[in-house]
What we know:
- By secondary structure, the protein is an all-alpha fold.
- It has six helices and no strands.
- The protein is elongated, with a radius of gyration of 18 Å.
Amino acid sequence: EIPPIFLAVHIGLILSGYGAYLVAALAGSLFLLAERALRSHHPDGIFSSLPPIEESAGLQHRAVRLGVVLYSWGILSGIVGTLLLGEVGRFFRDPTVASSLVLWVYMTLQFLLQTLWGFRRRRAAGASLFGGILIFLIFFALAFAPKYHAAVLAP
């Protein structure tokens, strides 16, 4: 049986990774809105109260970096927990695990493109926004998926 503190750390890391990435999605949205307002040359109304474009871009990049680190540690702790339980066979049939790995690959790929290969700010902002939407789609899909993940932890 997995110690409760280990499970709490795993869940905390995963949820913190989601939170950081959703902050990146919000910052990316603000960046795209501010950029659109600047291009239109009429930043009135709500557009005039948006944060500076550089701040949005910086926050988006830092939030992606933090989200990838936290989510990676959460995934790693889940793998270690699965090995401790001896449930490796169920691990690969779990829709929660599969969707988490897909999201992790997406987040990591975006981080690498943005950090190593100079992904432009507009594309990075759009990728973060898409990643935030992906998180919500995954949560919605998992609400209707079989509960393998919870069954592994049941006594």
